[in-house]
């Protein structure tokens, strides 16, 4: 009975995270296009129009950091991160699931630690009013918040992945990334 409730809550959380990830990935795609536009403008402004720019590099970097970290959970949901699959063909399905579970558990530990440290960086930057050392001097809480949020979402996705790969009662199939698409 409790297992069914846990699976129901996990399924609801999985669907909610999928909706959040889909919305975030659209914003991340736009951020990549804007970053490309900012860098293109910088080249045109400096070399052809002789206009000094001091904001473009950090703006593009913040956009790229945000797109990278915020889309990580979307990529993980599809198991799209770089993986070493050299052992997969030689392992039984059961051992392969155990391998994937172990990799996801280690990844969850690392990502949760990274998220925690990112949240502490965000807090310090927010409280202390930290800015970058450039003449543009944008606040550092912006990239730290994007890193922290992205790694938190990735940690939740990895945790849900562990629930998906844990053994189920006999006759109950396990959900895969393809089943959820």
Explained architecture:
By secondary structure, the protein is mainly alpha-helical. It has one domain (2-180). Helix content is 73%, strand content 0%. It has six helices and no strands. Helix 1 packs antiparallel against helix 2 and helix 1 runs antiparallel to helix 5 (141-165). The longest helix has 47 residues, at 2-48. The protein is elongated and about 65 Å long. 23% of the residues are buried.
Give a short overview.
The chain has 181 residues and is mainly α.
Radius of gyration (Å): 20 Å
Between the first and last Cα atoms, what is the distance in angstroms?
27 Å
Main sheet makeup: none
Q: What class, by secondary structure content?
A: mainly alpha
The portion of residues assigned to helices is over 70%
Which segments are poorly predicted (pLDDT under 50) over 5 or more consecutive residues? 169-181
Question: Percent of residues in beta strands?
Answer: under 5%
Query: Topology as H/E string?
Result: HHHHHH
Query: What is the mean pLDDT?
Result: 88
Number of strands: 0
Question: Shape, please?
Answer: elongated
Can you count the helices? Answer: 6
Quickly list its features.
181 residues, mainly alpha
Write the topology of this structure.
Elements: H1 2-48, H2 56-70, H3 72-77, H4 93-128, H5 141-165, H6 177-180
